[in-house]
Write a structure and sequence with these properties.
With about 290 residues, this protein is of the alpha/beta class. The chain has nine helices and 14 strands. It has a single domain (about 40-90, about 115-280), classed as 3-Layer(aba) Sandwich (UDP-N-acetylmuramoyl-L-alanine:D-glutamate ligase). The chain starts with a strand and ends in an 11-residue tail after the last helix. Belongs to the carbohydrate kinase PfkB family. Ribokinase subfamily. Belongs to the carbohydrate kinase pfkB family.
């Protein structure tokens, strides 16, 4: 039986401290109480997709530890199928170390742990079981690039759709970009690909340039919304004005909701609308994942 949405990515424990401002190199600052929560770009996006009405299958890895069990519980309670998440006995669950300032801006360092042990052969085998022509796979780059590449090749064999969030930003092979439908990047990641700075005013031109490398592209612009481009042309969506509590996970909420809409048969335009709404909601709660209902 094929799955409409598969999410391949990371699952982490987030350790967050609120600070008045981010420290300078070599500086020690006093912060607030440590907050422990579930996170990871893959897990965040899978939960966002489930919140948007999808029933995503998660392909990931956690450690055989308390953090891993907490992640599996949180994902399962949030409507994500975790039956394909590997439990790695000799690796810790990944951890993200987050500082969050009073304006809601964050700084993050990730220790990948089990995320670095996601097995490409196991991922391909599961995709071969689950993927069909209408399947959408959403991936990011907090798991090994070789795993994402293997998954993309497997998707291509099944005529399925790859949505790649190129985050954390890194160089990838041109053939991988060519399969992206869409490629999701923020302005900084778009700038890395183009070799120049990209801002909100130049985002539509940047999207048009990136469209030469992929099937469709979305550039997120934070509070300024997002732009997209495909063979039908370019479009821009503004973000609603909301009170920002925490920007952690806002991009993941956007990507998960966008992928859910595509998996449901929506257009890029309707997917962009869903993503904008989800991202705006995400900045209004603390942490990378929404509060449980």
């Amino acid at each position: 039986m094929s799955a409409s949405l598969i999410v391949l990515g990371s699952a982490n424990t987030d350790l967050t401290v609120v600070v008045d401002r981010h420290p300078r190199p070599g500086e020690t600052l006093m912060g607030g109480d440590l907050v422990t929560s579930t996170g990871g770009k893959g897990a965040n996006q899978a939960l966002a997709a489930a919140r948007a009405g999808a029933m995503p299958v998660m392909l990931a890895a956690v450690g055989d530890d308390a953090n891993g069990r907490a992640l599996l519980d949180a994902l399962g309670a949030g409507g994500v199928d975790v039956s394909s998440v590997a439990v790695i006995p000799d690796a810790p669950t990944g951890v993200a170390l987050i500082t969050l300032d009073r304006a809601g801006e964050n700084s993050i360092v990730v220790s990948p742990g089990a995320n670095a042990r996601v097995d490409a052969a196991a991922v391909v085998a599961r995709i071969d079981e689950l993927a069909g022509p209408r399947t959408v796979l959403l991936a990011q780059l907090e798991v090994p690039l070789a795993v994402v590449e293997a998954a993309a090749r497997a998707l291509e064999r099944h005529g399925a759709r790859l949505v790649l969030n190129l985050s954390p930003s890194r160089a990838v092979e041109p053939w991988l970009l060519e399969l992206c439908d869409p490629l999701i990047v923020n302005a900084a990641e778009a700038g890395d690909l183009l070799g120049r700075a990209v801002d909100a005013e130049g985002a539509e031109r940047a999207a048009a340039e990136l469209l030469d490398r992929c099937r469709s592209v979305v550039i997120t612009l934070g509070g300024a919304g997002a732009v997209a481009a495909d063979s039908h042309g370019a479009l821009r969506r503004e973000a609603p004005r909301v009170e920002v509590v925490d920007t952690t996970g806002a991009g993941d909420a956007f990507a998960g909701a966008l992928a859910a809409e595509l998996a449901d048969g929506g257009t890029l335009a309707s997917a962009l609308d869903r993503g904008i709404a989800a991202g705006a909601a995400a900045v209004q709660w603390p942490g990378a994942q929404p509060p449980r209902r």
